[in-house]
Amino acid sequence: MYETVIGLEVHVELLTSRKIFCSCSNSFGDGINTNCCEICTGLPGAVPVFNEECLEPAIKAGLVLGCRINEVTRFDRKNYFYPDLPKGYQISQLYVPLAVDGSVELKGRTVHIREIHMEDDAAKLMYEDGKTIVDYNRCGVPLAEIVTMPDLTCAEEVVEFLEIIRKDLRAAGVTDGKLEQGSMRVDVNLSVRKPGDPLGTRTEIKNLSSFKAVSKAIEQERNRQIGLIEQGLPVMQQTLGFNEQTYEISVKRTKENSNDYKYFPDPDIPPITVSREMVEAFRRKIPELPSVREKRLVSEYGLRPEDSATLVRSCDLADLFEASSKISRLPAVTLNLILSSIPSEGRLPSPEDLAFVAGLADSGKISSGMAKTILHETTVNGTDPRRYVEEQGFMMITDEDQIRSAVLKVLEDPSNGKAVEDLRNGKDKVLGYLLGKVMRELKGRADPVLARKVLCDNVLQKSDE
């Protein structure tokens, strides 16, 4: 029996127009090496200048994750050589990071945030026809690195944590969180131990860019370390790569400690003062976070946690739900309509229009199929639902005599004779077929529950005769 101990380093690209230490554009998808300058490419004599635009999203990240924002922060040089690092060092924050001592609540566990620091991203290496291409567009893109304490114990907790911070950081305007574009990347620090033993030797799996990759990498590395221990072999402190296609782990290098990077304060960038007024101004810009809203919708509207989680994935849908529910006083019906009847394409209905349809559905005047048709007309074609209901005569037929008349017509139709006989003999599979015929007679407007009852009653009655 082994325990898994996991800490994370999550890199998120900050939403800014310019890079962190120069005026180059911070945009994704442009042509190779079109957004770079002498600072990005590390040319001799180039002097970085801090872009203060980066402060707002970075400070918001700290506030979202419950951190204390330091009043003075500064940058340091992290020295190492790699082909994607043209300066020979990365500008980061070791000694006085921007934010410290935060936390994120999971289901039954608190994950502590040690720090959030700013740094510049490295360039991107691409491999083509046996050649290596260096794209400096990403070099200098502003990052916030979120460093957790080793509080996580399994892949499921890690993914839950990442989903929470991704939703909240996106809602706050910190990052777009697009894992497929690399604007959120995860390094996993993992060790195993037997209960009660000291922490084991950790390894670091670098640059995981999907939640599936995170889960698979954790599973693979946990099993690898346990296998080594069971064979009496040591676990080496190493930096590892993970192939997201083959799920294979490879050793990149022996892991360095912070003193191996020979950190020292960056001489070109003066310390940055962060005023309380600035922090509070940024705090006021942060909307209600999805993680907070998700819990409030459960307590305030009685939603199931899974339904609330689905709603808050879209701020617009959650806003529509709340606004419409306050008008109709029908949160359960409103939720059902949003999840089942609003098409993925087209504009959203107004809260008033959705409340109108919810009222009709709740009173039994329209069926769920009618509600879907009405909302499709409203959202795709912009039709007023009140006028559409009136013009189409969409109110559900609940008059039993009118339904019985349609039922008798279906039962007396010779083409339905075999189906009627099968139903009389207890073959219930044909019930849907006959009920569809009845609904067609009434243009889909019959109360389906009442139509089913009348159909069955009349079939049994004729059987008795």
Task: Throw out a few tags for this protein.
40% helix, three-stranded antiparallel beta sheet, nine-stranded mixed beta sheet, single chain, alpha+beta, 465 residues, Arc Repressor Mutant, subunit A, 16 strands
Compile the SSE list and pairings.
Blueprint (H helix, E strand, L loop, with lengths): L2 E11 L41 H10 L3 E2 L2 E2 L2 E4 L9 E4 L6 E8 L2 E12 L3 E5 L2 E5 L6 E7 L6 H17 L12 E10 L9 E6 L2 H20 L7 E5 L6 E6 L9 E2 L6 E2 L2 H10 L4 H12 L3 H7 L3 H14 L2 H11 L9 H13 L4 H13 L4 H8 L7 H13 L4 H8 L6 H11 L6 H17 L1
Parallel strand pairs: 12-13
Antiparallel strand pairs: 1-10, 1-11, 2-6, 3-16, 4-5, 4-15, 6-7, 7-10, 8-9, 11-12, 13-14
Helix pairs in contact: 2-3, 5-6, 7-8, 7-9, 9-10, 12-14, 12-15, 14-15
Characterize the structure shown.
The chain is α+β, with helices and mostly antiparallel strands. It contains 15 helices and 16 strands. It has a nine-stranded mixed beta sheet with strand order 2-6-7-10-1-11-12-13-14. A three-stranded antiparallel beta sheet has the order 5-4-15, with no helix packed on it. It is elongated and about 90 Å long.
Overall average residue pLDDT: 92
Query: What is the quaternary state of this protein?
Result: single chain
- How far apart lie the N and C ends? 72 Å
Shape: elongated
Structural class: alpha+beta
Radius of gyration: 31 Å
